[in-house]
Write a structure and sequence with these properties.
By secondary structure, the protein is of the alpha/beta class. The protein has a single domain, classed as Rossmann fold. It is about 35% helix and about 20% strand. It has 7 helices and 9 strands; from the N terminus they run E-E-H-H-E-E-E-H-E-H-E-H-E-H-E-H. Helix 3 crosses helix 4.
Length: about 220
């Protein structure tokens, strides 16, 4: 039996210097690594000074370039192959979530998932299928993989915010609308924001909207 890869990556401790009361997990896009999204932590620490941010490297080396990591291969972008890729990697991410919650002693409702591009795909798939709801899911420039499976497989309904660039030429903005539609059909509270003229990336407005969402989705547990 093949061992499940263990994830690791950079972390940003709570700005207030105390033990973490909240946990924000940042999942990067294909071809990148955990050092990318951890740069968001100082921005959002202003909203969540008691939160620890962790940004794991995806478990596999990027198979289309000499550097970087991937959550699953994009050699084939057929819906079936991408769904298989997400499903194969989901147990790896689930285990890492469980490990981080155990390490910090935090309950699932003290965790938020943040994804960019392929990291958003993983966040939506895993976060909606965990037995106990997490605080929220924030997705930038991503898509929902296997929306047709969600109604039968969803186990929890955390609030979701999707943010997308209007000019994204890698993951078209239509993917946001498809994901929002699938979430609405299953009763998930989903907000979305389209950033004018933005391509495949995160701008200052998106960072601000994301920080406010994270603050608000944790508020009931404050």
């Amino acid at each position: 039996m093949t061992a499940i890869p263990k994830l690791s990556g950079p972390a940003h401790k709570p700005a207030n210097g105390a033990p973490p009361q909240r946990l924000v997990m940042l999942l990067h896009g294909v071809g990148s690594d955990g050092n990318d999204l951890i740069s968001l932590a100082p921005h959002w620490a202003r909203y969540l000074p008691d939160a620890e941010f962790v940004s794991p490297h995806a478990p596999y080396r990027y198979d289309m370039a000499p550097s970087g990591h991937q959550w699953f291969s994009l050699h084939s972008r057929s819906p079936g192959d991408m769904l298989r890729g997400v499903r194969d990697t989901a147990p790896i991410l689930d285990r890492f979530i469980d490990e981080q919650l155990a390490r910090t002693g935090l309950a699932p409702e003290r965790l938020a998932l943040v994804g960019f591009s392929q990291g958003t795909m993983m966040s939506l798939y895993v976060g909606l299928r965990r037995d106990r709801p997490i605080a929220g899911i924030l997705g930038f420039s991503g898509a929902m993989i296997g929306p047709e499976t969600l109604e039968a497989e969803i186990r929890s309904k955390p609030p979701v915010l999707l943010i997308h660039g209007e000019a994204d030429d890698m993951v078209p903005v239509a993917a946001l609308m498809q994901a929002a539609g699938a979430l609405g059909k299953t009763g998930v509270t989903a907000q979305w924001h389209i950033c004018p003229r933005l391509g495949h990336g995160i701008d200052e407005a998106g960072i601000a909207y994301g920080g406010q969402f994270l603050r608000d989705c944790f508020r009931p547990q404050s």
